[in-house]
């Protein structure tokens, strides 16, 4: 049997400190393009350091390689969904689904309450379907288009989308993370959701209030003439009508029916392609090369929408940017980031470097408040180091569960804390799977929208305040103790 040495605190700190410095250098040197390769190299070199520490401590290369392969395997489900979301965005742009959402959004949403309305709308959709990812890729993309039309800030809008999407996802019994957290902590699903209300609802309310005030300040920005210009561009290039929303309604229905995300999004993408062929005849004809017949040209255009997205020239540069995008190719950089990040996280876990941090934290976490704060900090740290929200729930959950029971704390305290620290903060980290996904879909860096994802920022802070004040911290009952 292989004999290995226990990792020291120096072992654990070395790759993490290198990663922090190299990621900081990446952002400094390359700016917004840091996630297009530089961050991946920083993660790769940090993985190499963790591997060397593992070899030093007696782990064989075969064991470490197996851990890396397993780590990458964990990301394949997310990568499949990400690729299909790219296709969905491409076909929905071509079919007129996204342009129609933008058109009607400009008709009914007032600039003064747009940010708050975006947050609430995403919350309702995410709670209904249990997926922050699907919400951002559909409603979120359309809301960014509406924001452009209203002359409002896209970065603030992205913060509102993230806030609403993660609030709804967190409280939905259909959500994977909402089911995962109580499973890890050993609590009941609906007890877990009920207990989360105490930190989640006030945080969301505060976030919405902030968005309302920001909307009032931005109300004078929108120009009626510009909105009319955008509507004219949309109507002149696309067939606009409520029937164009059928692909969206179909996807939401499939999600409500609990169909797995990949086939549901795939059906939505294919339906978008079919809708394009049926309802966007003039648009397709205008996009076809003069040397191609309509049949050949339409086939090539739809096919391209799946793998390379859709591109249009309207004569308005900002609208061209808004109405172009999508395709699987557009997601390649994001999938690269996810795979390398999970590579690093899997080695850190296998070599025992993450566990070193937790043991060190428990030595100073004496009170209930400090224990819950330490759990949240560990979840955030795991999101940064392991780069995946599922690992940020599972690993701290396994590590702290016995300590919560030892201190007489009900399991719902742990499951709620895992979500307050793990689920909520994952989209704020650029190299985390969630942060990378959101950047791929919304085309806005987490380093930018994180300052406006108020719900995601407030929730962990409120959870810490509750912990130290003893608000809604449930103790184990005598019945539990007898078990």
UniProtKB/TrEMBL annotation:
Protein name: Putative Na+/H+ antiporter NnaC
Recorded superkingdom: Bacteria
Gene Ontology CC entries for this record: plasma membrane
UniProt xrefs under NCBIfam families: antiport_nhaC
N-terminal signal peptide: none
Primary localization: membrane
Family: Belongs to the NhaC Na(+)/H(+) (TC 2.A.35) antiporter family.
TM spans (from-to): 12-31, 43-64, 71-93, 113-134, 141-167, 196-216, 237-255, 261-279, 322-344, 449-469
Keyword match Transmembrane helix: yes
Bilayer disposition of the protein: Multi-pass membrane protein
Annotated source species: Pseudoalteromonas tunicata D2
Record keyword Membrane present: yes
Subcellular location: Cell membrane
UniProtKB keywords: Antiport, Cell membrane, Membrane, Transmembrane, Transmembrane helix, Transport
Record domain Na+/H+ antiporter NhaC-like C-terminal: where: 164-471
GO MF annotations in UniProt: antiporter activity
């Amino acid at each position: 049997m292989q004999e290995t040495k226990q990792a020291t605190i120096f072992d654990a700190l070395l790759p993490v400190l290198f990663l922090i410095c190299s990621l900081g250098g990446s952002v400094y040197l390359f700016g917004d393009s840091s996630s297009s390769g530089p961050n991946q190299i920083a993660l790769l070199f940090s993985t190499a350091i963790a591997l060397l520490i593992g070899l030093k401590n007696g782990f064989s290369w075969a064991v470490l390689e197996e851990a890396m392969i397993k780590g990458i395997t964990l990301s394949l489900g997310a990568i499949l969904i990400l690729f299909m979301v790219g296709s969905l965005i491409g076909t929905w742009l071509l079919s007129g689904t996204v342009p129609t959402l933008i058109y009607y959004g400009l008709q009914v949403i007032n600039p003064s309450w747009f940010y708050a309305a975006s947050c609430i709308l995403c919350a309702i959709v995410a709670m209904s379907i249990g997926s922050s990812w699907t919400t951002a890729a559909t409603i979120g993309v359309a809301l960014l288009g509406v924001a452009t039309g209203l002359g409002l800030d896209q970065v603030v809008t992205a913060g509102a989308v993230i806030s609403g999407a993660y609030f709804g996802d967190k409280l939905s019994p259909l959500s994977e993370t909402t089911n995962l957290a109580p499973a890890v902590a050993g609590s009941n699903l609906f007890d877990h959701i009920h207990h989360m209300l105490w930190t989640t609802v006030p945080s969301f309310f505060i976030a919405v209030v902030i968005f309302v005030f920001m909307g009032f300040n931005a109300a004078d920005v929108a120009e009626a003439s510009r909105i009319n210009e955008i509507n004219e561009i949309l109507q002149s290039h696309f067939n606009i009508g409520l029937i164009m929303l059928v692909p969206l309604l179909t996807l939401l229905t499939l999600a409500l029916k609990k169909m797995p995300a990949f086939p549901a999004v795939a059906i939505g993408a294919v339906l978008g392609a079919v809708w394009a062929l049926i309802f966007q005849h003039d648009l397709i004809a205008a996009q076809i090369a003069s040397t191609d017949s309509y049949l050949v040209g339409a086939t090539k255009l739809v096919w391209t929408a799946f793998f390379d997205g859709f591109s249009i020239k309207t004569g308005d540069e900002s609208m061209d940017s808004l109405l172009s995008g999508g395709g699987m190719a557009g997601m390649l950089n994001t999938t690269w980031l996810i795979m390398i990040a999970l590579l690093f996280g899997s080695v850190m876990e296998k070599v025992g470097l993450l566990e070193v941090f937790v043991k060190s934290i428990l030595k100073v976490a004496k009170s209930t408040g400090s224990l819950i704060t330490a759990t949240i900090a560990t979840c955030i740290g795991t999101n940064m180091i392991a780069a995946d929200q599922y690992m940020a729930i599972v690993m701290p959950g396994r590590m702290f569960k016995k300590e919560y029971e030892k201190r007489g704390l009900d399991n719902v305290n742990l499951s709620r804390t895992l979500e307050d620290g793990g689920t909520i903060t994952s989209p704020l980290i650029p190299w985390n799977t969630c942060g990378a996904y959101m950047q791929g879909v919304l085309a806005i860096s987490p380093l930018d929208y994180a300052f406006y994802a108020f719900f995601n920022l407030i929730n962990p802070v409120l959870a810490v305040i509750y912990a130290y004040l003893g608000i809604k911290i449930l103790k184990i009952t005598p019945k539990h103790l007898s078990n």
